[in-house]
Amino acid sequence: MASFLSSIVLPIAVAAVAIVLLLGLINMMRGGSPNRSQQLMRLRVLLQFVAIVITMIAVWAMGK
Fold first, then answer.
1. Residue 50 exposure: Cα atoms within 13 Å on the Cβ side
2. What pLDDT digit, counting tens, does each position of 33-42 carry?
3. Rounded to whole angstroms, how far apart are CA atoms 64 and 19?
4. What region holds the HIG1 domain (predicted)?
5. How many CA atoms are closer than 13 Å to the CA of 45, on its beta-carbon side?
6. Which end of the chain has fewer CB atoms surrounding its CB within 10 Å, N or C?
């Protein structure tokens, strides 16, 4: 389970964070809706939390 989390799920979670971050930055640079940027940044924080939880579960599973 640890190898599945660390080799498949974690890179997907990190990529999702990066994509949402880039979308938020692009929206801000183009002068898009501030509400949209705020929603994207909130989503980024949520995805970062999920990525950290996945990382901690993978580290815990490797220790067992």
1. 15
2. 999 999 999 9
3. 33
4. 1-64
5. 5
6. C
Which stretches in the chain have pLDDT values below 70?
none
∠ CA 57-59-63, nearest 5°, is 115
User: Residue 48 CA to chain centroid, in angstroms?
Assistant: 4
| Total domains, the chain | 1
Cβ atoms of 54 and 14 within 8 Å: the answer is no
Q: Give me the pLDDT at residue 45, please.
A: 97
Pull the structure tokens for residue 19.
Answer: 């994509």
Residue type, position 3, single letter: S
Q: Which domain holds residue 7?
A: 1-63
Instruction: Please give the full DSSP string across 18-31, using - where no structure is assigned.
Output: HHHHHHHHHHHHTT
User: Are 17 and 48 within 8 A, CB to CB?
Assistant: yes
Secondary structure (DSSP) of 32-49: --HHHHHHHHHHHHHHHH
